[in-house]
Amino acid sequence: MKHRSAPHGDGVHHTDALRGLASLKPDSVDLILTDPPYGIASKQRLVVRNGRIVSTQDSFGAWDTFARGDHEQLILNVLAESFRVLKPGGALVMFLSREDQGYFLRKAMDKGFVYRNHIVLVRKSPLPSFTKRNWRSGFEICFYVIKPQEPRNHRPRVFNFLSQAECNNVMSFASTHKKTDHPTEKPLDCIRRIVEVCSNPGDLVVDPFAGSGTTLVAAKQSGRRYLGFDTNAGYVRMMKDRLDATLPANALNSVGAHAEAA
Ligand SMILES: C[S@@+](CC[C@H](N)C(=O)[O-])C[C@H]1O[C@@H](n2cnc3c(N)ncnc32)[C@H](O)[C@@H]1O
Q: pTM of the full predicted structure?
């Protein structure tokens, strides 16, 4: 696919992750923070949706359902494109299902990424176990890797060590964190912490599977440039509205708060 110049300024595009990434110049992105489809939707796996317990298949709709092999190929292609577009020393933070984390981390390292850490988001009140035949699901996990600056220089471009407490790789969030109707919205405070540690103001933050726009809202609130892609037109509208209602960093500094506008 032909590469166009990296768009300047902020943007949300109704397009496929791979098309969006292919439109970016090599070595042009500071941070990719993303939460792709996990390919786990099923009748058996349950989530709470609008106060009701429903299957992940009913909750997520079609976007998490893949023909055999297609999910793996999508993530492998996204890893390759992420490596191409990141600046040397730039970071990729990727959520995946617990069972797929190790496999795709290895694949990322095969493509040249260097492992730095995992980050775990702990849910304060996980769903009860109804069958009582397995552990309750109390956390989400992402890996944090970087594109090396040079073969023997594995330092990240940016790592803002805010404080010992804020740079603990275990963060917790309340189940009441959701601001939108997106079924898998990530907790904004945790995502903003990752953005603030792994990028600087003015840097370009990209989320190729942007959903309700949590990464982009975090970037806007922290004074970073942002770019997001999603194939679902409804979610693109949702995140545009959410971003319109989000105060930029300079306005937030003057009121001293990170709240999204009501
Ligand atoms: C797990 S959700 C992301 C949720 C997001 N982290 C949030 O906080 O709202 C994954 C998103 O990827 C989108 N998606 C699925 N396949 C895609 C593709 N090939 N390219 C771009 N977006 C895709 C879905 O529409 C969904 O909104």
A: 0.91
In the chain, the N- to C-terminal Cα span, in Å, equals: 41
Q: Is 261 within a domain?
A: no
| pLDDT value, residue 216 | 98
Residue 7, pLDDT score: 47
What average pLDDT does this structure show over 89-93?
98
The helix or strand, by DSSP H or E, that contains position 199, with its residue range, turns out to be none
The CATH number covering residue 207 comes to 3.40.50.150
Residue to mutate, 93, 209, 220, 229, ligand 1, most ligand atoms under 8 Å from C-beta: 209
Return all residues near 182 (Cβ < 8 A) that are at least 6 apart.
211, 212, 235, 238
Residues with CB under 6 A from ligand 1: 16-17, 35-37, 63, 182, 184-186, 208-209, 211-212, 214, 229-232, 235
Within-domain flag for 140: yes
* 257 part of a folded domain: no
CA atoms within 13 A on the CB side of 195: 29
Q: Residue 237 half-sphere exposure, CB side, CA atoms within 13 Å?
A: 4
Helix (H, G, I), strand (E, B) or coil at 227: strand
Report the pLDDT value the prediction gives residue 59, as an integer from 0 to 100.
Answer: 77
Domain range for 163 is: 11-249
pLDDT, tens only, 223-256: 999 999 999 999 999 999 999 999 988 766 544 4
Q: Whose CA is nearest to atom 25 of ligand 1?
A: 232
